[in-house]
């Protein structure tokens, strides 16, 4: 059987490139070597290259996304995209692949760019039955007196977050009026758009969703119990800072309802590949509140999606094969 040539793209242009490289190492380890020839492609500003097993770096020709190896042109049958943040998660890279006619494992350019913007995504999913969104304000510029204006509109505590960021970089939970100005400065350092939203008191969960054989599959939710104020960068990537329970503690009725909501979100946003939706189950009401969606979720051994795949008794090898096969449908 002729093996399919798969470009495993990693790295990126943001601070999340470190996580991307870790995710890629796990994906490379678990991909089916009998079916796929895996090529590690690193994408950094002005530096796109294929890394050989012996560490040799071959530059990519960006006119057609190929490398010349031993005098021969090496092209790829498909791309396993594991770049978190820009340009892999915000639509730029997949738009380039669309123009070259190369299939890939993640959402298309439109869905990727929209879902990178937290405020726009919330507006779209707010129409989904049984899914709620916290009251929020989208900001396009920082200015004197902004903190006071916001406090007239929103109730403390509130979250301040960069609109297009990932991994909770630049995000703050604000409990007092005095903290708000600093939190806004921090978020605007990361992005030109910032979202400020009211805090929802509840338990935090994350649920993986993907498509195989044209059917939307929903994995079990993971419950996140963080020792930090919220599930920030440290809580996500530092061992022991948060406790993660998969499947999360939830009664059968809620589990059935969130499965339906997750399918609806995946379909409404026209997702492809594996995505992860974060949500709250509000304490007093048991209402589901949307937090955000990650269209290129982490794939390290301890990542939430990896935990959820193992919880249903599936190997990562099978899971990744299903993701790759789906991109050719």
CATH superfamily of the largest domain: ATP-grasp fold, B domain
- Can you give the helix content as a percent range? 25-40%
Number of strands: 18
Q: How much β-strand is present in the residues?
A: 25-35%
By CATH reckoning, the class of the largest domain would read: Alpha Beta
CATH fold node name of the largest domain: D-amino Acid Aminotransferase, Chain A, domain 1
Average per-residue pLDDT, rounded, comes to 91
Largest sheet: 7 strands, mixed
Quaternary status: single chain
Distance between the termini: 19 Å
Structural class: alpha+beta
CATH architecture assignment name of the largest domain = 2-Layer Sandwich
Count of folded domains: 3
Number of DSSP helices? 10
Which residues sit in consecutive blocks of at least 5 with pLDDT less than 50?
231-237
Provide the gyration radius in Å: 20 Å
Report the principal-axis shape.
globular
How do the SSEs run, as a string of H and E? EHEEEEEEHHHEEHEEHEEEEHEHEEHH
Family: Belongs to the D-alanine--D-alanine ligase family.
Cofactor: Mg(2+); Mn(2+)
Pathway: Cell wall biogenesis; peptidoglycan biosynthesis
Organism: Cyclobacterium marinum (strain ATCC 25205 / DSM 745 / LMG 13164 / NCIMB 1802)
